[in-house]
Write a structure and sequence with these properties.
The protein is mainly β. The chain has 3 helices and 10 strands. It has one domain: Pnp Oxidase, Chain A (Roll).
Length: about 190
């Protein structure tokens, strides 16, 4: 794999998988506008898809998982508790790469989430403890309180079942699919 994002994407399946995991690495930056934003889709109470943008916080290739942080009172936690099947989509414009990921998501709270909570920057803590709970109807745009609450901090851990990698680099687009159940061996697909 090359570090040059302008180079053509690899055409060897093992290299494509390496490239995909490199794209999933969280971008640890001081400017949060450059954070790794992904779209998380869950299934709501009516059975409809519910999608929202979230920040990728960690990826662990040996474990085959991705972590996202959230306020435990958000509707997405209720949706995940009711049906842990989720989809995640990442578009990296700088790499001309789309990743579509599905799997099962766990909600990690309490002592198991404490280490991650303790590493959050001070300015991020009030994001976990909004009152009323996120998604609740309020009287005006600012009719809510932000107060850090470690008990409301949760890690959403997606255990990846399959990974669809689409390169839109010119002149040739490529697509590969990798599944946990076959040891991430991979197959080519038409883009």
């Amino acid at each position: 794999m090359t570090d040059d994002i302008n180079a053509p994407h690899p055409t060897d399946l093992a290299q494509v998988l390496n490239f995909a995991w490199a794209a999933l690495a969280p971008q640890i930056v001081q400017d949060r506008r450059k954070s790794q934003v992904v779209t998380l889709s869950t299934i709501d109470a009516s059975g409809a898809p519910a999608a929202r943008s979230v920040i990728l916080r960690d990826s662990d290739r040996p474990r085959g998982s991705i972590d996202i942080f959230t306020d435990a009172a958000t509707p997405k936690c209720t949706e995940i508790a009711n049906d842990p099947r989720v989809a995640l989509t990442l578009w990296r414009a700088d790499m001309e790469l789309q990743l579509r990921i599905t799997g099962l998501m766990d909600i990690i709270e309490g002592a198991a989430a404490h280490v991650a909570w303790s590493k959050l920057p001070e300015h991020a803590l009030p994001n976990y403890g909004v009152t009323p709970a996120p998604g609740a109807q309020i009287a005006s745009a600012t009719s809510y309180q932000r107060s850090p609450d470690a008990a409301r901090f949760a890690i959403l851990r997606l255990t990846i079942a399959d990974l669809d990698v689409v390169s839109l680099k010119s002149p040739t687009h490529t697509r590969a699919r990798f599944e946990r159940r076959d040891g991430w061996r991979g197959v080519w697909r038409a883009p």
